[in-house]
């Protein structure tokens, strides 16, 4: 039995970690921290988790005893606590942006702050880095948009079929976290579609880093907030360098992702509801127009494959467990 | 031309007053106050109002010059500014709860605060008090739930057909105002139906006051928050004291509201979309079951007939204008 | 390994049965029928079920070989196929209304058709009939509204604390099934709350039958369609016959449902999102007003505890399996 | 007083024409046709239009007497009725795609049918063709997507600043019309974002025709269905041929649309709610990234500026009325 601690467990990704780990046969959650809700039963904050006796603790990360710790903390906060946990030999999956960048300068430019404690970390997208994750002590869990965007573009970059991408993503509101803001106020985002950080979203350099690792790309990214609770649908527009047809593209993707436990190349257009609540990424569409523009569409649940599910997948790999343990259930449609 | 000032113009009811008055032929808005947005163009805060040159002011109400002032201020705040405006001979339509109660004790019990400045005011439901409104200097604009609930029950109370009511209302989220809270955070209220203040909502004694004025009633009220932006749908359940059929009930309502400019008795079930954006109240259903329980359903737009539209209607009456001026357009379906 | 057949597997309840049974350790789905999609892979119709190789069959129910058959067929259709399956000694969980009524006359009156093949069946609400279900060959799976409504009223009826109920329910649109209609067309039901069958819904006599079994009741029921995909929130309004306070009511419910694997009495107001996708029924609120009206609120997922999950629970009981097998995961919030 | 007939008045664009014309001072609607609802009062089909006495007629278009006729008929149907109306000297605004293309071959290719009755028509986008509309007898009202897309790109094409466009549009579900389908079934499109006709939407050649009129373009277009009732938000991605900054772009747009009654260049990102129910098109964003990709965002109400409002605007121009008559009210936010 692997003992797990969750730092920052009262938010949406924390709640999702708890939901997923509740059915994980090899794991026991021993600590769930929250400064705000210290002493409060988990079931009061996460109304779906009525059968746990856990209470939130306001615990010093430096004294938390566990085999694996998930840091579901904001960027800037993770870098302050991860180093001391790592030093004590504990495995860490960090859900913030703090350890995702190879080049600390890129982090500092896009996140607008000094990185105080750089560490060696593996970027936790198993579809690219599975072998490194297996040996890692610190895994930087990918951002939600990058997960859907990288998986939609990766085979094309690998095969050098395309190098220019305009990625137009649509995200559910849970991606903004549990804290209410004007943007996430129901009357403001309901019945609206709201582009934001149109050319300046922090996930842009993350997508670029991972794709450029394979081959150089020219990449533009724009996210939109849509009146959906969970899910990111990514429409990746690209100009093909070769004259390929739809079924040839689909074949390339099917081959590339063969054997991947959580990527499914689907016939037709992926649906958010098909992956809702699950760790799957569905990829489809593959249409090409008269300008040789191809459109690849991916769908993920931003809180699962886009955050907590992928974090559990990474933990499974790091701990030598079955990669799909606790995650092998389908989405919820409708 | 009547000059109008709006105190508290940056919220949803303020924005709605500005939207409605923009097309009112006899009125000019001369002041729109907001402490938070002082100096900011109205068009920046209310994105739909691009054609006004108004800027928000942080103005002392005691020095505001206008024929009519709307106080779109929270309860507790209105009582601090209305008296000095009244003293200066200006007509006031107050959108808060501060002047709705005949018995100050009821106000103090349900609103949990001392009433510092009671004044004579007329309850601004024209369907009951039109003649008094005509002569009033201070009109207390009804609450959103009471508007829909009273209109749904009034003919039955008047005709002594029923005296026991269980009012189960469903409100759109704009009724909670412009300020984000946990309850109104999109992921929390989307795909949910949330009963709140189940037996303790402040609009309960307001409904009771107006119906009891006609005949004694035993009244229970429960509101629910639904994933809708605008609108209140009220299902008034009542036990009939006489054996009446559906079409007899409909006839009673049709007769009672004959000539009312903003009440429409409709065949079938009222739709929120049918009144969206408009000052109409639709009333329908009138079904009776084997327990002599009848169900009356009313639909209003909470921001229009439930707030700002009714306020303009009251202003029209107070100023001797055509009661429907600026308000005589239909709802928006779908 | 228990072999299972699903008749009518292409609709929402069929899809939900397939989703739930995919993770059930003791069961294998051997047949999934659909006349419309005969020969089509299940993954094409249910986009979330990408990992099954099942294809829909247009199979004669009289020749289907399985230990248990779920009939996810409309009322009127079930009575035509269930008898021959029963005759062959196969266990049946019928999700239609055809076998829910003890008195065939009630069925014929409310469903407007002759019942051609009455059979002995057990009403499949385990919280009332667990022991009978254990020995049954034919279980009539309860309707979605009755599940939430009966569980909200049962302890009060049992304890003779109340006998008059006005049940005001709000249902998600998936309850209307997979077939598009004007009512379920997005622009018509979005941003609306639509009462329907206000005094004539077929679930009324079903709720009444089960509660009256315990003690006589006077019961009125009205459903509303709300812009929610999954879930039924029921507000049961009742007048108490004794002077009880909120915490006394809660204690009665907690005691009554002690040990029930899928009923949770919660502090505060139940949330649809807390039970979404799960087989739990959450019950809460328990507020009492000055008219001795109490409000009990229950929340279920209409497709799970309100249909397919409860069907699996019934199968587990009938087959002597662990009652919670395949169902012991929490809801999905947000 | 101008007399108006509406052919196909029971759908969403028909209802919207009726809503808008109800407040038009210079117009009287004398005929509203519907084969399906012949004899039925308009108020029964359009629940928001309670104050009209009009009934739907099943009228032969060849015998309809009116100054102006709106044909709110599907493509393929318009071409069968417009010629005989034109022959009788009546002005026509056709809302279908039948008369939008200069090159009949393009129509036949994209609409997959032979054009039986080509006629001279003016493409009814006043921002391009106002003077021709003034003299036209037949105006082809633009498609909903083209209206938002052309207005977002036009100044850049005119100024030769860009010639390659990837247009990623998000439309509300009312754009699919009043007829229920699987795609528009609430549980299917709620909480989803659904790309459709990804490279094959019929509005593609329409956008291309109007922009290419000015200067050659390479244009790709992809629409998405979003869980919104009204509105189209268009994100036009383009690569600039010059090194321009955001405020320079904004200046170009502001200058270009100076004096246009229904286009507003806004600071920041346009909101669907800001134009909801109104005839305005808001254009904003203007951000540029490190790849010289610029993003222009436009927002319209698909049923108003994207259909019926623009049709009334065209009628006003054709009849020499004030262009904004009946349309000069702001959107509805929230």
Automatic annotation (TrEMBL), chains A, B, C, D:
Taxonomic superkingdom: Archaea
Please state every residue range assigned to the domain named Semialdehyde dehydrogenase NAD-binding.
3-136
The entry's function note states:
Catalyzes the NADPH-dependent reduction of N-acetyl-5-glutamyl phosphate to yield N-acetyl-L-glutamate 5-semialdehyde.
Give the UniProt family note.
Belongs to the NAGSA dehydrogenase family. Type 1 subfamily.
- Return one Gene Ontology term, BP aspect: L-arginine biosynthetic process
Q: State one Pfam family annotation.
A: Semialdhyde_dhC_1
The active-site annotation reads 144
One GO cellular component from the entry? cytoplasm
- Provide the GO MF annotations for this entry: N-acetyl-gamma-glutamyl-phosphate reductase activity; NAD binding; NADP+ binding
Chemical reaction(s) catalysed? N-acetyl-L-glutamate 5-semialdehyde + phosphate + NADP(+) = N-acetyl-L-glutamyl 5-phosphate + NADPH + H(+)
Give, as in the UniProt entry, the pathway in which the protein acts.
Answer: Amino-acid biosynthesis; L-arginine biosynthesis; N(2)-acetyl-L-ornithine from L-glutamate: step 3/4
SUPFAM superfamilies attached to this UniProt entry: Glyceraldehyde-3-phosphate dehydrogenase-like, C-terminal domain, NAD(P)-binding Rossmann-fold domains
Q: Which UniProt keywords apply?
A: Amino-acid biosynthesis, Arginine biosynthesis, Cytoplasm, NADP, Oxidoreductase
EC number(s) recorded for this UniProt protein: 1.2.1.38
Q: What InterPro entries has UniProt attached to this entry?
A: AGPR (IPR050085), AGPR_AS (IPR023013), AGPR_dimerisation_dom (IPR058924), AGPR_type-1 (IPR000706), NAD(P)-bd_dom_sf (IPR036291), Semialdehyde_DH_NAD-bd (IPR000534)
Major localization listed first in the record, in broad terms: cytoplasm
Under which name does UniProt file this protein? N-acetyl-gamma-glutamyl-phosphate reductase
Q: Which gene encodes it?
A: argC
Localization per Swiss-Prot or TrEMBL:
Cytoplasm
């Amino acid at each position: 039995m692997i003992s797990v601690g969750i730092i920052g467990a009262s938010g949406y990704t924390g709640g999702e970690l708890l939901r997923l780990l509740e059915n994980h046969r090899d794991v026991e959650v021993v600590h769930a921290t929250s400064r705000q809700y210290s002493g409060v039963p988990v079931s009061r904050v996460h109304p779906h988790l009525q059968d746990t006796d856990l209470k939130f603790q306001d615990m010093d990360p430096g004294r938390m005893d566990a085999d694996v710790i998930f840091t579901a903390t904001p960027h800037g906060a993770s870098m302050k606590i991860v180093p001391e946990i790592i030093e004590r030999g504990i495995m860490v999956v960090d859900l913030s942006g703090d350890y995702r960048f190879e080049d600390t300068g890129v982090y500092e430019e896009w996140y607008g702050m000094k990185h105080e404690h750089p560490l060696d970390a593996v970027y936790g997208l198993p579809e690219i880095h599975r072998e490194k994750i297996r040996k890692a002590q610190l895994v930087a869990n990918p951002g939600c948009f990058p997960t859907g965007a990288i998986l939609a573009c990766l085979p094309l970059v690998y095969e050098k079929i395309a190098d220019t991408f305009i990625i137009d993503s649509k995200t559910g509101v849970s991606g903004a976290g549990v804290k209410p803001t004007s943007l996430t106020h129901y009357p403001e985002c309901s019945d609206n579609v709201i582009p934001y950080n149109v050319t300046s979203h922090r996930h842009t350099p993350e997508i670029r880093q991972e794709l450029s690792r394979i081959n150089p790309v020219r990449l533009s990214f724009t996210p939109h907030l849509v009146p959906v609770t969970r899910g990111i649908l990514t429409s990746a527009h690209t100009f093909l360098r070769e004259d390929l047809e739809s079924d040839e593209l689909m074949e390339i993707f099917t081959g590339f992702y063969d054997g991947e436990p959580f990527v499914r190349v689907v016939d037709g257009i992926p649906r958010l509801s098909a992956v809702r609540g699950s760790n799957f990424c569905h990829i489809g569409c593959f249409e090409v127009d008269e300008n040789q523009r191809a459109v690849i569409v991916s769908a993920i649940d931003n809180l699962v494959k886009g955050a907590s599910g992928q974090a559990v997948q990474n933990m499974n790999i790091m701990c030598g467990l079955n990669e799909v343990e606790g995650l092998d259930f389908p989405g919820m449609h409708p």
